[in-house]
From TrEMBL, chains A, B, C, D:
One Gene Ontology MF term: glutaminase activity
Domain of life: Bacteria
Protein name: Glutaminase
Keyword line: Acetylation, Hydrolase
SUPFAM superfamilies for the chain: beta-lactamase/transpeptidase-like
Organism: Marilutibacter spongiae
BP-aspect Gene Ontology terms: glutamate biosynthetic process; L-glutamine catabolic process
């Protein structure tokens, strides 16, 4: 009865290959802009000489340009997948432990937690992701295997694995995350030991995937909960809708307003340089460029998504 | 070549009349819930015994239930219209004086202004709306007439007028707004006298309209900038997209995340009990119920929009 | 029974004249340092070529160096005197409307007010001084005359008067104070019209006095409540003690900790460049130099008090 | 030639024994008021049926009432002693790592740290005390022995020891302190491992002493740096003055303004129910009562100090 969604043939009239080539030409001239995340040693050394982009239609067709097969650590993009696992495990009870509002400010991380008594503002802030990780840990005996299996099923790539070097690198300099975790724990909002929560968190962030993997891994959010890669109904259509909504209002750190304004698609970024985005009912995509802007989002990734949305008119607004 | 948008006949298959009737039945049982805005004397007395809802399709067809023809003061809904006028007047230069990010917290109003040196977080917070009002004032000789003409053209109703009693009532108890305006002025971000800015602001808030008027007044945002009521191209398609994005991330006070999650439509609420919403490319709508929830949004209005979005599947996500 | 206080002859053994000369020699080499308060136009033009200091013993003897007879506007120093008048009028009831704690941070002015629902942290912040001014206004029919008479009696100088030019200059650029006053008013913590409160406040700040006047005006706080100038018991000994305590913890803006640490005397500063200080039971003093440090206190004034306290050993600690 | 300080015979005229008896009579009627610190399990069980007070003159005479020989854990009172050790070790370089201003608000603990990039506001907040502990740890090979030796020398009691049960109890529930320490570490302002800093910190807090011990341990701050117990010059007179100043502006959590106002003496409190205070050049004292007020200070201890200061007139103001 929902006749709003375009049919495959409608979408087929977009020249996605041409659009991606145009974007690739534009960003190529700007390689080198932005800065790598410097607080994780393993990321600070990545050269700024490559860009990749991949797009996956509901019918499975893939369009890609540049280093779309280059693997990088997905970092905060993983928060979408762990949120899905947590909601699958506990349902709406999750919202008693984490809120659904934009965070407002970068500096809010700990400040807001203190005002709000240990309830993170949303599942995509670090604080919220730690609570989500705690829920996943509590819900299964081997959370890391569970997440890895989920990722491999969603991406259709059994080679997806954790980059242990990056995971260790994050753990080594993670005093801020330790502070955050102990602070939440002091409010009783972590049930597992801080060390276990952070261990899982660092491993989810260090999952290594490429643009095609990640674009595919978002298919269930582009497909009303149905994953075209595995053929499974991963979550209900309503839940897919809601996760997309959360990405729109909180998926890109403090730049959610700016992303809605310039891109107009649900998206989730990571400091590894990746950004995934979803055109509900139509397609999912992923861009990668490791130079970040001052909000921590991939600088050319954001630009590429802006151009994509403008050229195709596929903003949700 | 944007083939994504459904044709009129597609949409026609939705039984909007039936859906509105169902919603009306559901909310009727809950009349009395919520609380009137009590800081404006004129609003505190409105009884909680009525609900109205109106929907306007791109082809001009109107569906309505309940007190859809009952007039109320539009309050913060007017911020969408003044933002449109301000962007029309100064374009992107507006963004040097007001930001586009969610505000984060209710208590942030003045706090955030102090941190961010007089630059409001977005044009829909009171602080941001005062800067927008200042821009409109500077851009034309008779701002009140300009706004009134705009509203009458958008709604197709020449009887739209300001409720002077409510405007006076707001001015009488407006020490907080005076504080806000002088505070912004102290940072040099108001160019007109504080009294003039507030006078205009109180009049825009006190515009009296009904659900049908307001749903129609949003047609240009449902129509890629084209107003189906007047036949005018009010703003560019791109600008319409962006205003919708701002409504999504900042249109419902501190509940923007919650609205995106449960409703999934760009929306703007007012403490008079109205909420307007847009299904881009498809329709615009308005609900009214003067009992507010603890975030200041119409309690049954929010519920009605949630139900509408679920029953039609017309969430943007 | 309180034998702790030194007798006049003990104190006489300090070579105050020599100490003041030494200090004068030291500061003379540093004239020009610091910056005038620039937000009040009348103060921004004062040259940084003069320094004055005066000291008044309990027996009435005066020691002075430099421009101790140069008149300047006392600005926030007046808050000590209006606090005295307010406590005289309403006693401990004042503390229901203003607290007695240090403010913590410069940026707290409005922020803290919002957290604490319109109750200023102490009577020496601008917000607190406005509430104090409101209390004084409510307690007598002609508050400005009352304060002027009080100042003339305390200083023994009938020529003390308000510098109307400076008062107007402050009012002209007073959007921040207007914001503050309306904000407090919105919480119901100002009983008089905002305009009246600010008018009184600007006049108290614009009182023009010299170092000898001001040092004398503090005699009642050095004398257990007894003013040696007029021979009157102005307040009880206990109240004098408490006002001194408030100056110690909140008298020098955000530098109260620093002042206690380096100077060790109850003191109150003003952006006109004056600082008064009290050695309880012994003497009162005043320094003036219009170049301020980054906390808004007279740069050489602070230095002179530090040196005075070290050379005499007259820190209260 | 500081003739301000009273001679022993002057002070002898105070009837300290009688004054302490009067205070004891007054507080006895109020036993049971206040609440034990409940976040440390070992403290939560202490009955509210005892009060102790001890006073030590410069000549060594001791006056005491009630349970002045009852041992309790000194908790935050130890921050005075570790500050002394840290200043002894690194001098003014300490002030590059911790500030000297009042903290403003209880909730500021982490918030302020975030604004101020890991520099605690003063050495008596938990955050500041952790930095001080870190400095002490870096300055000697066995910090716990060093502190214990210092405490025994200051109190003249070789039986002073750590209550290991309380230390463990604090460590068990110390997620907030872990958060604080990791947060400071993330700014590079802890040089030793977080575990080592907290281990030392919990042991300093769990030192078990009685009122007489603690009053004696403050003699060096009442004696211009000279400890009358050991006969040693512990710090310079100027440093003693400054530590007293810090106690005045920051020694009693968020109630420093209130303490200055009602007591008027440099003081440091602990959640174990102890409060030490100093009358510079005259005497040191300690009160104990484990029922706390809502700011975390001993309720009857504060009252006893207030009465003492009023009855003797020995406020510094």
């Amino acid at each position: 009865m929902h006749l709003r969604f375009p049919s495959a043939c409608d979408i087929g009239q977009h020249d996605f290959a041409g659009i991606l080539d145009t974007i690739h030409d534009e960003v190529r001239r700007r390689l080198g802009e932005g800065r790598q995340a410097d607080y994780i040693q393993a990321l600070a050394k990545v050269p700024l000489d490559g860009f990749g982009m991949a797009l996956v239609l509901r019918d499975g067709r893939v369009f890609e340009v540049g280093r779309a097969r280059h693997r990088f650590t997905i970092q905060s993009i993983s928060k979408v997948h762990t949120l899905t696992l947590a909601l699958d495990a506990v349902g709406d009870a999750l919202w008693e432990r984490v809120d659904r509002e934009p965070s407002g400010d970068a500096f809010n991380s700990l400040i807001q937690l203190e005002y709000e008594k240990g309830i993170p503002r949303n599942p995509f802030m670090n604080a919220g992701a730690l609570v989500v990780a705690d829920v996943v840990l509590s819900s299964c005996s081997d959370a890391r295997s569970r997440l890895l299996a989920f990722m491999r099923a969603r991406s259709g790539n059994t080679a997806v694995a954790c980059d242990e070097g990056v995971a260790r690198s994050e753990a080594d300099t993670g005093h801020r995350n330790l502070a955050l975790a102990h602070f939440i724990k002091s409010y009783g909002n972590l049930h597992n030991p801080v060390e276990d929560v952070l261990d899982f968190y660092y491993h989810q962030c260090a999952l290594s995937m490429d643009c095609v993997d990640l674009a595919r891994s978002m298919q269930y959010l582009a497909g009303n909960g149905h994953c075209s890669v595995s053929g499974e109904q991963v979550v209900s259509g309503e839940l897919a809708t809601r996760i997309n909504a959360l990405m729109m209002t909180a998926g890109t750190y403090d730049a959610a307003g700016d992303f809605a304004f310039y891109v107009g698609l649900p998206a989730k970024s990571g400091v590894g340089g990746g950004i995934v985005a979803v055109v509900p009912h139509v397609l999912s995509l992923c861009v990668w460029y490791p130079g970040l802007d001052d909000k921590g989002n991939s600088l050319l990734g954001r630009y590429a998504l802006h151009r994509f949305s403008r050229m195709t008119g596929l903003s949700v607004f």
